[in-house]
Amino acid sequence: MESDLGSVCATPLVDTTQSIDMNHFVEIGKMRVGIDASNIRDGGGLTHLVEMLSAVRPEQHGIEKVLVWSGRSILDKLPQRPWLRLIHDPLLDGPLPSRLFWQRFRLTGLAMHNCELLFVPGGTYVGSFRPFVTMSRNLLPFDPDERRRYGLSWRHLRYILLESMQSNTFRRASGVIFLTQIARQVVERRIGLIPGKVAIVPHGISKSFQRPPQNQYPLSVYSVNRPFRWLYVSVVNFYKHQWHVAEAIARLRQKGIPVELELVGPAYPPALDRLREVISKIDPKEEFIHYVGPVPYQKLASHYHHADGFVFASSCETFGQILLEAMASGLPIACSNRSAMPEILGDAGVYFDPENLREIVEALYTLMVAPDLRKRLAQAAYERALQYSWERCARETFSFLADVARGASVKDG
């Protein structure tokens, strides 16, 4: 079953690609790009695909047709455009083995007959079509220290297998897109320099999150009935360290500071068990620590807009989309000093070691007692977030795809 749908593109934060010689595409005819979305299931990967295809103008890059192969649930969420063709295969509705079978034995022939370049944003490709471009979306497989948090478990083994598969994909790719410079550095420390073309293309941010910073009040304005509300949005997981943040909030309460914490996001069950154990000890009646659970993406912005401050304690991020959402929401931010966070937030936040309870307490306290600091950092974070748009992301992505296709065509010629 096939349907014609369209998409739109975004513009990049930093122009890392070379300009495209449109005369080249006139000579060889308009280009067709295929997108293997077989490994995209939900979450950030789906958001990226939807937003990018909703913002792009492919004709600006010499591309007349974009084809997307995926399962029905993904295709139904993509935008409708005259240049976008959505192609469904029942195998792509199935589990990972059936999707890998399709990618290995069916996609190559489909791509050869339908496109000049294949884009595999999922990061793993076992087929033989060339040229193809892929993306690095997950640093956990390339960080042994973070993997060890899972002990002897299937999750740990899965990350080891992913590192092997994605390393092979990156080495064979004609081009690899990273979301941040630090992500590229982490991967290349593990597998060596990427032999193909490389681009850094950050994600964008939905305008629904954008809200200029609000007035910042002194700590004396807050009370038990109206505490300072910290928000932490993220999946509950071992590398997110929500329990350390909860303990920091409890320390502040012990000092008589009116403060509460809202935790929003789905959960990895073993990590949620650890969080609930900590909460049961420090706030058994759940008076000031509230785990809300998962919230639909469309309703996330309201949680940011009702918070007084944002805390992010992850120790491993390829990009930090949630951090960008908080920045765009105009919140003062206390943030982990690990991984990609300093690259995204810059000097617009107060940093801490996410595994050092004392540092987390100090970072939260520093912001709470200094409204002028909160105001200055919230404004800086908000202005920094405005640089990230899906229009720029889409434009830079498709410019890179066209550049790789041009290079492959010249090489073959």
Record keyword descriptors for this entry:
413 residues; 14 strands; alpha/beta; Rossmann fold; disordered N terminus; 6-stranded parallel sheet; 16% strand; 8-stranded mixed sheet; 2 domains; 41% helix
Description:
- The chain is an alpha/beta fold.
- The chain folds into 2 domains: 2-204 and 389-412, 3-Layer(aba) Sandwich (Rossmann fold); 207-385, Glycogen Phosphorylase B (Rossmann fold).
- It contains 16 helices and 14 strands.
- The protein has an 8-stranded mixed beta sheet with strand order 1-4-3-2-5-6-7-8, sandwiched between helices. A 6-stranded parallel beta sheet has the order 11-10-9-12-13-14, with helices on both faces.
- Strand 2 (31-36), helix 2 and strand 3 form a beta-alpha-beta unit.
- Helix 2 (43-53) packs across helix 16, helix 9 (242-254) packs parallel to helix 10 (269-282) and helix 9 crosses helix 14.
- The longest helix has 23 residues, at 390-412.
- The chain is globular.
- Residues 1-29 have low confidence and may be disordered.
